[in-house]
């Protein structure tokens, strides 16, 4: 198995012993992204909509580095700290996908997330 690490400065650097994404074959596995602004390195959790948009933009930057778009995403995992926020998160998330080609996914409420953010999203993409 050949493993290629995907890295971009247009998304936040990892905050632990992992990479932004790993490509093997035609599959790209993107680590969970939180609302860290890649330019400043600062966490942006002022409001849920802005936080979710930044998470999605970080995913978009990593996908681009892997020569992919959201159309290549086949699976996402959404982790949220409060299921009451699902509607707002889902609304922003939905603007990044076409309904007829949206990926499979699960959404799970968890006790805590890194840096106590409200949302973390990971993705798996396939390169055509």
TrEMBL record:
CDD domains: YjgF_YER057c_UK114_family (cd00448). Gene3D superfamilies: RutC-like (3.30.1330.40). It comes from the Bacteria. Pfam families: Ribonuc_L-PSP. One of its GO terms (molecular function) is deaminase activity. GO terms for cellular component: cytosol. Belongs to the RutC family. This is RidA family protein. It comes from Zunongwangia profunda.
């Amino acid at each position: 198995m050949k493993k290629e690490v995907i890295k971009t400065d247009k998304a936040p650097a990892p905050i632990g012993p992992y990479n932004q994404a790993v490509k093997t074959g035609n599959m790209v596995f993107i680590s969970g992204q939180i609302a860290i602004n890649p330019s400043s390195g600062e966490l942006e959790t002022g409001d849920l909509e802005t936080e979710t948009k930044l998470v999605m933009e970080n995913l978009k930057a990593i996908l681009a580095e892997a020569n992919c778009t959201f159309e290549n995403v086949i699976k996402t995992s959404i982790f949220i700290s409060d299921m009451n926020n699902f509607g707002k998160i889902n609304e922003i998330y939905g603007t990044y996908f076409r309904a007829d080609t949206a990926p499979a996914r699960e959404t799970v409420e968890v006790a805590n997330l890194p840096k106590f953010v409200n949302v973390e999203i990971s993705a798996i993409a396939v390169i055509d």
